[in-house]
Specification:
The protein is α/β, with parallel strands linked by helices and about 150 residues long. It has a single domain, classed as 3-Layer(aba) Sandwich (Rossmann fold). About 55% of the residues lie in helices and about 15% in strands. The chain has 5 helices and 5 strands; from the N terminus they run E-H-E-H-E-H-E-H-E-H. It has a 5-stranded parallel sheet with strand order 2-1-3-4-5, with helices on both faces. Helix 4 links the parallel strand 4 and strand 5. The chain is elongated.
């Protein structure tokens, strides 16, 4: 299992990386969220952990990056906030889970990452089936058109 950790804070990154390592999860860490889309295109990851600080001026920018990253892989959001209003906002986001820094352990990490990865695998499988169905409909429509002519 491969995870991309997007964590600007060096200390928080060390703690999270240690927990991921103990859970047996291979992790690549980047500090700059803007690097995420290119990193995800060059290497296949099962899940992305995106750390955002709700008081940060970069929150809006991180939320835009979240949208891009979510189109490629599953996302678990990590925040420094246990603020209820922020959590209610987070519920509107396309994420697979939400962790509060300092409030998770190896077992929770492993369970959450496995669930998010499986969710993404099923989503990708569904997208492939939809694509195949669209092609079949297109071919059938073409064949029917020729028969009518």
């Amino acid at each position: 299992m491969r995870v991309l950790l997007i964590e600007p804070c060096e200390l928080d990154a060390r703690v999270t990386l240690a927990l991921l390592h103990r859970a047996g999860i291979k992790t690549t860490r980047i500090a700059n969220p803007k690097e995420a889309p290119s990193k995800l295109k060059e290497t296949e990851y099962d899940c992305t952990l995106l750390s955002i600080e709700h008081d940060s001026g970069a929150l809006e920018e991180n939320l835009q990056i979240l949208q891009t990253v979510r189109s490629i892989t599953s996302v678990i959001l990590i925040s420094d906030s246990d603020d209820l209003h922020f959590f209610l906002e987070v519920l509107q986001l396309p994420i697979d889970d939400y962790w509060i820094k300092g409030d998770f352990d190896e077992t929770m990490i492993l369970r959450s990452v496995l669930l998010a990865s499986e969710h993404q695998r099923r989503l990708n499988e569904l997208r492939q089936r939809v694509s195949l169905l669209e092609k079949l409909v297109e071919r059938t429509t073409g064949i029917c058109s020729k028969l009518v002519d």
